Amino acid sequence: MSTDIKTRFEKAIEDVEKLPRRPNNDTLLKLYALYKQGLDGDVSGPKPGFFDFVGTVKYEAWAKLKGMRSEQAMRDYIELVKKLEDEQAR
Q1: Whether the Cβ atoms of residue 18 and residue 82 lie closer than 8 Å to each other
Q2: 45 SS3 class
Q3: Would you say 48 and 56 are in contact if contact means Cβ atoms under 8 Å apart?
Q4: Within its chain, how far is the Cα of 16 from the centroid?
Q5: Cβ neighbours of residue 74 under 8 Å, at least 6 residues apart?
Q6: Which fold has domain 3-89?
Q7: What is the CA radius of gyration of the chain?
Q8: Do the beta carbons of residue 6 and residue 74 sit within 8 Å?
Q9: Could you state, in order of their start, the residue ranges of all structural domains in the chain?
Q10: d(C-alpha 63, C-alpha 43), whole Å
Q11: DSSP assignment of 3-40
Q12: How far apart are CA 31 and CA 37, in angstroms?
């Protein structure tokens, strides 16, 4: 994995925290899944229990990215953060 992608990914992680408005829940879920896939690769560990609704939704969103290369997840995360920044700058 190139250090350039890793550096840009780390900057995007910081930038998402500085957005003027909180993204909607669907976008936050996508950011979470891309973040986890980028850092940790395919989903691992047991699926959260039935009563942990938020944990289950996050787990399932990450699981949908199974097989995506970490570098591609990082690129998609960077692109999504840039899109959010552009939208919120207007």
Answers
A1: no
A2: coil
A3: yes
A4: 10
A5: 1, 5, 6, 8, 9, 34, 38
A6: Acyl-CoA Binding Protein (1.20.80)
A7: 14
A8: yes
A9: 3-89
A10: 5
A11: HHHHHHHHHHHHHHHT-SSPPPHHHHHHHHHHHHHHHH
A12: 10
Residue type, 18: K
Torsion of CA 68, 75, 14, 58, to 10 degrees: -30
Which two tokens mark 1? 């994995």
* Residue 54 DSSP code: H
Query: The tokens 């996050």 sit on which residue?
Result: 58
* Among 25, 57, 53, CA closest to 43: 57
Q: What is the pLDDT of residues 1-60, one digit of tens each?
A: 778 999 999 999 999 999 999 999 999 999 999 999 999 999 999 999 989 999 999 999
